[in-house]
Amino acid sequence: MLGIINILRCQKLTHNPVSQFIRYLHKEPIKVTWEKPVIGCTKLNFDGSCKWESGKASIGGVVRNHNAEFMLGYAESIGEANSTIAEIIALRRGLELVLENGWNNNIWLEGDYKTLVEIIEQKRQVRCMEMREHISQIYSILPWFNNIFASHIYREGNRVADKFAKMGHHLHEPRIWRNVPPYEVSAIMKEEAQGKIVLRNKGL
């Protein structure tokens, strides 16, 4: 069996899985941070969670102000659904709650499902009937907001919303937290408010 030194000396490494793994190890990780919104802007981070073995899904999200202070959090089990539908419902529910609370001046939407963010930004139509129904509901809500900005963030920067979404798996009915966050997310919220950098390996 070739030793690692001999493998590195081989000239035809392009399709060698060992060499690909070595190159992967030498890629610099991406630095990910959660960013505070500007003054006068409210930020909604949302996420969906799906258990592949059972097919059960849940949603969650968090609303914070320009000081990264907790305004509202939500979590809910939504039964059987795939991860895409869970992400869409998480966003729709978050928008409904933001609107219900009168925070409709400037809203920043942020999630780790890039395709959904692009659909919202570009107001794209989708072919899937189930997706189209939920997206249409989101589009009907958006005009109620004065200004909307949507952005994608890696899941390492969406940890609070991810935690809420996972908490939803254990709930028998929808849950909303106001002003004071549950202890399960307090430590993560503090880290994000302080601008903690979380490293993400390239290729994930």
TrEMBL record:
Organism: Lupinus albus
Pfam family, one: RVT_3
GO MF, any single term: nucleic acid binding
InterPro entries to which the protein is assigned, alphabetical: RNase_H-like, RNase_H-like_dom_plant, RNaseH-like_sf, RNaseH_domain, RNaseH_sf
Chain segments annotated as transmembrane: none
Protein name (record): Putative ribonuclease H-like domain-containing protein
Tree of life domain: Eukaryota
